[in-house]
Design goal:
single chain, NE0471 N-terminal domain-like, alpha+beta, globular, two-stranded antiparallel sheet, four-stranded antiparallel β-sheet
């Protein structure tokens, strides 16, 4: 299944909130993905926060050219649950 990102919000400690098509929000911890030379700069929190969505690729990208397949992001992420949806 192809998943396309609409927006991305960097949050603490290498987490991203991802908005996929159909306004589905998911959360992912990218720390396990930060291996290899292209991902090394992402270990710097200021650089990590420079993430954006490339509309042509439909996925997250950083200024150094690092990107992650949107289907991998979808599969490895979990649904974002708001407090009122969680019953708290």
């Amino acid at each position: 299944m192809l998943h396309e990102l609409r927006s991305v919000y960097p949050v603490r400690d290498y987490y991203l909130i991802l908005e996929f098509d159909e306004s589905e929000y998911r959360v992912i911890n990218l720390r396990p993905f930060l291996d290899g030379p292209v991902f090394e700069p992402l270990k710097n929190p200021a650089f990590f926060r420079q993430v954006r969505v490339d509309p042509d690729a439909g996925t997250v990208v950083w200024p150094n050219g690092a990107d992650i397949d949107p289907d991998v992001l979808y599969v490895k992420s979990v649904p974002l649950v708001l407090p009122e949806e969680a019953g708290t």
